[in-house]
Amino acid sequence: MMRNRWSWVLVWLLAASASAQEFELDLSDDSSAPTSPRELRPTLAVLEVVASDGDEVSTSRAKQLETELLSLLAKGEQFQAVLPPAPTPEHCADVDCFKRACAAAKAQRGARVTVQHQGVGSLVTVLGFDLAESQLIRVTIESGEKAEKTFMGVAGKTQAQRDREFLRKVLPQLRSAFRKLAVANGKVVVDNRDPGTPVLVDGEQVGLGRVEAVVSRGPHTVSLGGTTYEPYSQSVTVKPLETVSVELKLVAKPLTQVVTKKSTSVPVFARPGLYLAIAGAAAAAVGVALGVSTQGVQQRIDAGGRPVAVTRTEAMNAATNAVLANVLVGGGAALVAGGITWVALTPSRDVAPVGEPTDNAGPPTWTLSLGGTF
Description:
Blueprint lengths: L1 H21 L20 E9 L4 H20 L5 E3 L11 H11 L3 E10 L2 E10 L4 E8 L7 E2 L2 E2 L3 H21 L6 E6 L6 E4 L2 E5 L2 E5 L2 E7 L8 E6 L4 E5 L24 H31 L9 H34 L29
Parallel strand pairs: 1-2, 1-3, 8-14
Antiparallel strand pairs: 3-4, 4-5, 6-7, 8-11, 9-10, 9-12, 12-13
C-alpha cells in the first residue's frame, strides 16, 4: 500500500516537471506576417496595461504582460516605434480621449490593455485607436484556464507557472490584435516648382518647394501656403503603401497699384498770411490809440483858458502822434487786407498728385477763411 502511494507521488512529480517545461515563452515574431518599409510603418503609443478590477493576481499579470508585450512589439516589424506608457497615462475609453493622448505622444495609433479576473483565469481586453479612421478597435482574449486538480491537497502548478501559461496563451492573440493597428501609411509627393513656397497637408506645413510627406491612409488636402500665388488646393486619397503625386499650380497674384493722396493743404496756423494780417491789425490798433491821444490834446487846446491846459511838449508830441496814427492805421489796414488775401489763396483740401488716380474728378475748390473783429 505504501509502495503504491509513493508511485503516485513520483508520477505526479514527473507530470509537474513536464508541465513546467511546457511554459517556456517563444516571443519570436511571425516571419510569415507581411512587412512594410520602415518609413511607412505607423507609430504606436501603448497608453497603459493595468488591472481593471484591482485583483492581486490581475495586477501581477498586468505588470508581466506589459513587459512582455512591449518587448514583443519592439522586436516585431509592424510599427516604426512603440512608445511605453507615460508616468500618468490617461484611462481612455472613447475616441476623443485617444485623440488627445495620441496627439500628446505624437503617435498615429494608440492602445489600452486591461486585465481582469474571470473564473479561474483572466480576461484581457485591448482597446485600440486608429487615427486614420478615428475609430476604436476592441478585442477580448480569454486565457481559457481550467480549475486545477490537487493531489493530497497540493496543486501541481505554482502561481508563477500559471502566470507563464497565461502569457503563453495570450501573447500570440495579442500579436494578432495589434496587427489590426499596424496598417501601413502612404506617401504624398508634391511637385512645387517654387523652392520658397510652403506646402500644407491638411492645413499643416510639411515643407518648402518639392516635398515628400508620409501620411496616414485616407483623404487629405494638399494646398499652397504663402501670399505670392493665388490659393490652390487639391484633395487626394492615399492607400496603404501607395505614393500619390500632386502637382501644385502656381498662378502669381496680379500686382495692385496702391494710390496714396499727397496732402497739399496747409494748416491755418501754418499760413504766413494769417500772421501778416495779425501784424497789420496790431499796427492799426496802435495807430488808432495814437489818434485818440492826439484828439484829446486837440480838444484841450480848443477849450482855451489861461493858461492853456496843454504843455508845449504835449503839443509837439501830439503833432508827431497824428502823423504816426495816419501811417499805422493806413499801413495796418493794408497788411490786414494782404494777409487775408494770402490766407484765402492757400488751398485747404487734399489734392491728388498729377498723373495718379483720385476719387474726385471735379475741379479743385478753394475755401476763403475770414476771422477776427475789426
